[in-house]
Amino acid sequence: MFFGKNIVIRPKYFLGAGALFGFLLALIGLLFPEKEILLSDTVAEVNGNYIRKDEYFRTLTAISSDSKNPITEETRTNVLERLIEEELLVQRGLELGFAREDRLIRASIVRAVIQSIISENVSEKPNVLELRSYFLFNRDKFLKTSRYQVAVYQQSDEVSAVRISKELRETGSTKSNNVSYIPNTLLPLSKLLDYLGPDVVLVLGNLKSGEVSDPIKSGEIFFVVKVFVLEPGSTPDFDSVKEEVEASYIQEKGDRTLREYLDRLKTVSKIKRSLPTSD
Question: Do the domain assignments include residue 193?
Fold first, then answer.
């Protein structure tokens, strides 16, 4: 049978075919320079820099999605010319030093490089075992903080503040209506800090449910705090904060990756430091 015959293909035939193919490609490049570009991954070369096909087609797709008219040959040509002009402007901007002197451009470059570094090294989604282990060793990050529902009375003199504190402790109420506005709901200390300031919040953190503070001086005002409800902080279970754990894990891994990259970059770079004195 035909397939049963021993067929011997001599190596020189492969060499000859390869040489012929290479010759044809070179001939196409000489006779039709524009065709040579189409055989590569680029659509144009601008002063030694290449515009890639994927960038060209991405721009073309964006234009076609915004237009109801079909893409014509003129549109394709215009897209390529726009990319060429954009590349020329970028090159000119680099020549003028904009990348180093313009703070906005520098910031954009830094953000893009950081994102690239992190994306390359933190691309895989962490598995449940990794997240549970991270949660186990970082429980404090996911603690639910204590929340308070309070009433706060303020007076301009200490004597009146002492009287209010005594009334609240003995009768549970006071005739004073000079009350600081606090939302009538449970709030964490971080939020109460916005309303009361650090002096009052520092004392509040040591009070229990139902307790009343002594007068607290903050600036020229005396405050008295009564805690109606205290919801203690607690450690949530893993499943209820899984998304937060994953976000924190990825953030930390990205920060660590960036730090290691920068340390390596400093090691292989020539850096001279000349820190000004504080004189």
Answer: yes
